[in-house]
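User: I've been trying to design a sequence by hand for this structure and keep getting stuck. Would you show me what you'd pick, starting by listing the structure so we're on the same page?

Assistant: Good idea, let's start from the same input. This is the structure you sent:
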């Protein structure tokens, strides 16, 4: 049997090989298409059992098999596997696109949902859907609508044409930024201009020049070249030249009119507004928020304005301190935009100098993992233990998560070390999602490893969730334990938070269990929440042991780490809020006929920024998140999720950060619920009220005077 078609339990990594991908995925797509066709053709009145369950079964098999292929492609890449993966990608994409546009299926989902309302009104017990099932259907129906499924034939064609033009324009926007970035190069011939730059940056610049057959040092607008100049180069003329090139990229002030994004931005905003109007929304922000936790554009704008007002005094103070320091120690009469990073770095060094490498000596791997597990076991009442399973590499570890009574809840793979042919970064991915199986026909294919002892209330077996947690930390060398930087430790806690969201779910329906169906602006709540423990003195005491002396992290070093974390937090906050406001206003009250994006950027800056931007700054022209990516009317999500996680953590601070009762409540009301109800309801159930922004400000050293 093709191991990718074997869904009994965990993935069969040891019998995997790239040539198995094509036949398995093709088979699963044929099966799924047949299921969809049968379901759509069935004359019986649609129910959860005869429509949603078989579709879920078929698409889950495809999703799980493809998930294994995608995972292996990321962590043990090879030419053969990459070819197999890329070879199937168009077919897979086409399958999902067709499914999301299947009108017969859409009609059936709507009928099931509507009949469930009828049942509810008549209070008839038979056939009534669970709230998770309703939520799952609501999500499906919403996505069909946002995809234009309810439009007239003519409007549908217009909607499609707009989507196509938009994707071309967004791609053009990114290409323009990329081309403008890549085209720039500045050669320094006077060695004196390099003063202050770190040696590796100078060496890299010399190599760049040499590669062009030139003498001297070449600097570019790529981050590894640009950032060190802004942060360290003492020569202000060099900083100004580089800054000007950077902030005029892809604008009418840039090097080439061919890369000017002015018209591209205007057209993107015009088309987004037009497609929103077709769908019956007032503006694009309303479309964006339809699948998010924030409900209205006004709610987001009010949230951002409140954050701006509360962090502004701290930003003003940061700015005054920087100006005073620059005047006194750096002989600067005024601090220009191109001086900010340089002067800030000097101030940071003077105040909080400590070496990341010193800190690292206190975080050997075993101590960190034990510290992480201690936190998780204390607050959630679960037990984490090493277990065995087939894996894709000898360094991969496998763990069981058991409840306090020994019941298996979930399992996870830890793939922690960087190595060749493994994609960089850190992430959590689902291998198997929790669902309840049985009692219905047509789902014999998905058995999974099951927990037969769980028969509470509902019939069927529980398929327990399994997660992949992947990081890229340095592996142990020369018999010494792997040492993690403090940033690595934060990353580990962050991904583990995503993992717990996936593993501690108690939802029975695939579409809304674990992280499935969780609103986009709420999905980082459990992960950012976990990061807080890495800044907790009581936790760090148990999580650190100097690799040679065995001593815990000293308090003095900890205090410096905290101070450095909060350095210029006010200015950093305002910068993010400025971008988020620009994004939100551009997609609500902005009129492309009478207004320009530059005038809008100017108004937003006038309202929130403390640093004076030069007149030539063209930041919107390179704002790829919003004009070239998926963050349109969504940039606020970064701060939104931080507020949620900081406020959730404050509940622990109030009761003791390892308090099991608070932990049980967080597990029950937030983690266990997954996407089965709105994130705001889960938050309120846990906290007893709506989120408050003060806790995030306090965690960043911005404590308001009482
Ligand atoms: Zn995350």
């Amino acid at each position: 049997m093709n191991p990718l078609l074997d869904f009994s339990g965990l993935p069969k990594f040891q019998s995997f090989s790239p040539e198995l991908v094509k036949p398995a995925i093709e088979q699963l797509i044929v099966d799924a298409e047949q299921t969809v066709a049968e379901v759509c053709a069935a004359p019986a009145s649609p129910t959860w059992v005869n429509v949603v369950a078989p579709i879920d079964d078929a698409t889950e098999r495809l999703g799980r098999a493809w998930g294994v292929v995608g995972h292996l492609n990321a962590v043990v890449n090879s030419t053969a596997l990459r070819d197999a993966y890329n070879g199937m990608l168009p077919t897979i994409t086409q399958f999902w696109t067709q499914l999301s546009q299947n009108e017969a299926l859409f009609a059936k989902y709507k009928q099931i949902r509507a009949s469930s309302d009828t049942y509810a009104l008549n209070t008839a017990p038979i056939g009534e859907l669970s709230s998770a099932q309703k939520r799952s259907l609501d999500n499906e129906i919403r996505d069909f609508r946002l995809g234009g499924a309810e439009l007239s034939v003519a409007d549908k064609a217009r909607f499609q044409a707009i989507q196509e033009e938009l994707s071309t324009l967004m791609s053009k926007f990114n290409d323009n930024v990329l081309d403008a970035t890549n085209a720039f190069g500045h050669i320094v011939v006077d060695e004196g201009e390099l003063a202050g730059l770190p040696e590796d940056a100078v060496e890299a610049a010399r190599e760049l020049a040499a590669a062009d057959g030139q003498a001297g040092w070449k600097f570019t607008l790529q981050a590894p070249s640009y950032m060190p100049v802004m942060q360290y180069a003492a020569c202000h003329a060099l900083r100004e030249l580089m800054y000007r090139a950077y902030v005029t990229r892809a604008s009418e002030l840039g090097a080439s009119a061919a890369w000017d994004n002015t018209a591209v931005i205007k057209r993107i905003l015009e088309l987004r507004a037009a497609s929103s109007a077709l769908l019956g929304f007032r503006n694009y922000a309303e479309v964006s928020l339809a699948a998010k936790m924030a409900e209205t554009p006004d709610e987001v704008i009010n949230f951002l304005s409140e954050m701006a007002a509360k962090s502004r005094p701290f930003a003003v103070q940061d700015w005054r301190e920087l100006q005073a320091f620059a005047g006194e120690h750096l002989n600067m009469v005024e601090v220009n935009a191109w001086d900010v990073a340089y002067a800030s770095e000097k101030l940071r060094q003077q105040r909080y100098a400590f070496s990341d490498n010193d800190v690292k000596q206190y975080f050997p791997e075993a101590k960190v993992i034990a510290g992480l597990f201690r936190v998780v076991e204390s607050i959630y009442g679960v037990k984490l233990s090493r277990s065995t399973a087939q894996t894709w590499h000898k360094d991969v570890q496998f763990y069981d998560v058991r409840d306090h009574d020994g019941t298996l809840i979930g399992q996870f793979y830890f793939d922690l070390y960087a190595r060749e042919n493994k994609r960089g970064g850190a992430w959590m991915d689902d291998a198997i999602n929790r669902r309840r199986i049985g009692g219905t026909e047509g789902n014999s294919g998905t058995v999974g490893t099951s927990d037969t002892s769980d028969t509470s209330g509902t019939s069927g077996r529980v398929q327990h969730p399994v997660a992949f947690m992947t990081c890229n930390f340095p592996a142990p060398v020369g018999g010494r334990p792997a040492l993690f930087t403090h940033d690595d430790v934060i990353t580990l806690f962050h991904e583990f938070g995503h993992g717990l969201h996936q593993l501690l779910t108690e939802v029975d329906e695939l579409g809304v269990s674990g992280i499935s169906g969780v609103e986009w602006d709420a999905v980082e709540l459990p992960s950012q929440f976990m990061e807080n423990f890495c800044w907790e003195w009581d936790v760090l005491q148990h999580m650190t042991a100097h690799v040679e002396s065995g001593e815990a992290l000293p308090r003095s070093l900890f205090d410096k780490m905290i101070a450095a974390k909060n350095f210029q937090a006010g200015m950093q906050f305002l910068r993010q809020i400025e971008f988020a406001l620009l994004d939100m206003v551009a997609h609500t009250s902005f009129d492309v006929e009478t207004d320009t994006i530059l005038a809008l950027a100017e108004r937003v800056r006038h309202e929130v920024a403390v640093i004076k931007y030069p007149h030539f700054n063209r930041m919107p022209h390179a704002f790829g998140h919003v004009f070239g990516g998926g963050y349109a009317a969504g940039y606020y999500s970064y701060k939104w999720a931080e507020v949620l996680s900081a406020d959730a953590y404050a509940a622990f601070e109030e009761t003791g950060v390892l308090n099991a009762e608070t932990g049980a409540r967080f597990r029950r009301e937030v983690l266990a619920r997954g996407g089965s109800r709105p994130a705001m309801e889960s938050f309120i159930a846990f906290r007893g009220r709506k989120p408050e922004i003060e806790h995030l400000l306090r965690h960043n050293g911005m404590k308001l005077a009482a």
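That's my pick for every position. To get oriented when you compare it with your attempt: Confidence is low (pLDDT under 50) at residues 122-126, 440-457. The pocket of zinc ion is lined by residues 494, 498, 524, 527 (CB under 6 Å).
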